[in-house]
Design a protein that fits this description.
single chain; alpha/beta; six-stranded parallel sheet; about 10% strand; globular
């Protein structure tokens, strides 16, 4: 394999959480008086840390979201994860092959550590990710599209950026990986390819990834 570390985004790449979480986010924002469609949520917030939701709402309306916004949203999302979350099709096979071949990998997500762990347990992916392989935007000062999270994860894993490959499905994540100086493979299962135009390569099914990384 051409890389010494594969960094996976989480939502939409490892766990099929984007439809669930963006449906709930759009509904909650609408409930609070900020009309938001599912498509709006995907466009504006997919791949971002929650502070982006606060920032955009305040920028557009001059109003701040309630102090308990994050807690309420997390409770709704986690409950939905427990009921419905599934792994992205084919990702178990990819992780199993990387592990069998001794290729280091990790997750670098805009989500909180709690969100990552809840999602992995619900989707049955927790066996692939011990704590040392989990990195969150909580660990750095700025989330995607800043490169900080990817740079931090690579440093902690002891791999130079030019030997890293990022797997992303959001424009913000692709921008962050490019800014970090890493190759990035854009997963187009949910995202129109033109929105991931900065990626090194694009692919539509997880089963294609291993051949691209070789």
């Amino acid at each position: 394999m051409r890389y010494d570390l594969v960094l996976f985004d989480n939502d939409g790449v490892l766990v099929d959480s984007e439809p669930l979480s963006n449906t709930l986010l759009a509904a909650y924002l609408t409930e609070l008086g900020h009309p938001t469609s599912y498509e709006d949520s995907l466009r504006d917030y997919m791949g971002a840390a929650l502070h982006r939701v606060h920032d955009l709402v305040e920028e557009r309306t001059g109003q701040r979201l309630p102090e308990d916004f994050d807690d309420v949203l997390h409770a709704r999302v986690f409950a939905a994860f427990e009921r419905e979350l599934r792994p992205v099709a084919g990702v178990d096979g990819v992780l199993g092959k990387l592990a069998a071949d001794g290729v280091p990998y990790c997750v670098a997500s805009s989500g909180s550590h709690e969100r990552i762990r809840v999602g992995h347990r619900a989707a049955g992916l927790d066996r692939w990710f011990e704590e040392s392989r989990i990195f969150s935007s909580q660990d750095v000062g700025r989330g995607k599209p800043a490169p900080d999270l990817f740079l931090y994860a690579a440093e902690r894993m002891g791999v130079p950026v030019e030997r890293c490959a990022v797997v992303e499905d959001s424009p913000l994540g692709v921008r962050a990986a490019v800014a970090a100086g890493m190759d990035v493979y854009g997963f187009t299962a949910m995202t129109p390819p033109e929105r991931l135009a900065g990626a090194t390569r694009l692919f539509g099914e997880m089963g294609e990834l291993l051949d691209l990384l070789r």
